[in-house]
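Section 5: illustrative case.
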């Protein structure tokens, strides 16, 4: 399911216009992204959680040349599925 399919499903289920559904979906994603940008954890009980993992600077290796490379500190988003989602998928 992609964003357009999600909007169409919300439009049908909630019996609202496509523009309203698109606005709701965009607000949802914007608020999730904003919370994660502030370093907050986003948890949707029974479905999943999103969190930001911080990595310190480390020395890596260029796979083509074998040369050592310094990797700068970074933050990456992670997704963890909840138990109910796991059970639903693995019926």
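Designed sequence:
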């Amino acid at each position: 399911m992609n964003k357009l399919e999600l909007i169409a499903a919300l439009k049908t289920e909630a019996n609202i216009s496509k523009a309203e559904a698109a606005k709701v979906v965009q607000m949802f994603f914007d608020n999730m992204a904003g919370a994660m940008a502030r370093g907050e954890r986003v948890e949707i009980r029974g479905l999943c959680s999103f969190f930001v993992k911080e990595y310190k600077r480390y020395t890596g290796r260029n796979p083509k040349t074998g040369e050592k490379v310094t990797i700068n500190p970074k933050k990456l988003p992670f997704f963890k599925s909840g138990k109910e989602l796991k059970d639903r998928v693995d019926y």
